[in-house]
Amino acid sequence: QINSPRPVIKLVQNSVMADLSLDQLRTKFQEANQGHLFDYFSKCESGADKDAFEQQLRCINPVHVNSIFAKTSATDKAIRSGESQMTVAPLPETAIHDCTAQGQPVAEWRDLGLSLVADGKVAACVLAGGQGTRLGYNGPKGTLKVGLPSDRSIFQLQADRIRRIQDLAKQKFGKEGTIKWLVMTSDATHETTLKYFKENEFCGLKETQVHFFKQGWLPCLDNNGKILMESQSRIACNPDGNGGIYPALQNSGMLDVLSDAGVKYLHVFSVDNILLQVADPVFVGFCEKEGADCAAKTTAKKSATEAVGVFALKDGKNNVIEYSEIGEERSSLTKDDGSLQYNDANIAVHCYSVAFLKDAANTYMQQLAGSYHIARKKIPGPEGEQDAIKLEAFIFDMFQFAKNFKVLRVDRASEFSAIKNPDDSGKLDTPTLAKNALYKLHASWITAAGGTIESKDGETPVVEVSGLVSVQGEGLEDLCKGKTFTPPVYLQ
Predict the structure, then answer these.
(1) What confidence tens digit (pLDDT) does each residue in 161-176 have?
(2) Which of 161, 235, 344, 372 has CA 20 to 30 A from 331's CA?
(3) 361, 248 contact by CB (below 8 A)
(4) Which residue has the higher pLDDT, 184 or 9?
(5) Cα 377 off chain centre by
(6) Which candidate, 436, 470, 392, 483, places its Cα nearest to that of 186?
């Protein structure tokens, strides 16, 4: 159930607390200066509330929570005060390959990736723990429809593209490889997401190839590190960030699922990129060719002031430097040719070897106890709204452990348009802008295939190509050459 206690990441070590008596549990929290939670516990009148409260308490090791808070808050204070000793440098050029530049073996990468798909060695994972609340949408963001001619949701668009990649691999190599699709949810989205997939027949995929698992959680804290209550009988908590994918894959058994299926690479991405190339054979083939155990896609920044994280070396190690960390002066530094030194934006599209993910969950995660990040939010409390600190792990903090980290620079207009803000926000990354980006891309495919699109000056023609027909503009000549299309167009 959505309101049941959340599965916790290994770092909190709930197993330490599970076998304690209630008195021992109380003592453990009191010794960690978190005994106030038992003041609320003792006042619980409902047996069901008390049982649920106790389960939450047993999922938290307060000593570890205190340790995480102390390390993370010290780092955060140093950054905000300008006293951080963190060093920042651009990634070495040898780590970056520009897919848009001439001379890159893109066709070779694609064929290599399709061969891996045909052999069943590629899986995909969508980070789908977010709600559409910011967009004024009541539901998981993956179920959002932005008003395309197809009326497809984000999940449906991604599923169509998975099916197309499987078909392309079969056409090329004569084998029916299955791309397993992992969907990482949160408490807020899990039950609704499962219901959506069942009602929509798993978006055309086999039920056995779609797997759901929940990310972990951490308690919310006040500015002094005290664990906060959400109500009189429930601890306030939040998802542990997109970096929670590493322990969640392990704790849920998903790494075993991938290993048992013979999967070698997992393509991981955020749910809200409408142009996403799911299980992209070019990206996977690139990783195989380069021997990358961890890789990321990037696009060039729009400008020096674009508020995005960028790939860089942090203290000499591969990472992403957030816009708030890098500073305006460093963001504007240029190379001899005039291009930005820190120009490769993080678009939340990654690829990992399954072997690396096993090491991440079993070894590297324990080394990141002090690498959480602080988000300050207003949250509900027993007496009304309260200030809270949310601790989050970032997915890119694991990049530092990669033995061969690579970055693939791609064309933004072809691969990245996020949906983060409502249309009336006056900001970028809105549903309408994302939808228009898709229309422009798909119209360019039809034109390149010899078709003509009637359009009015100053208007973006409404053109959509089904993901079941094409994912990168391939295979459209027979459908488009010599033909004229009048918008709205849905090519299927």
Answers:
(1) 999 999 999 999 999 9
(2) 372
(3) no
(4) 184
(5) 21
(6) 392
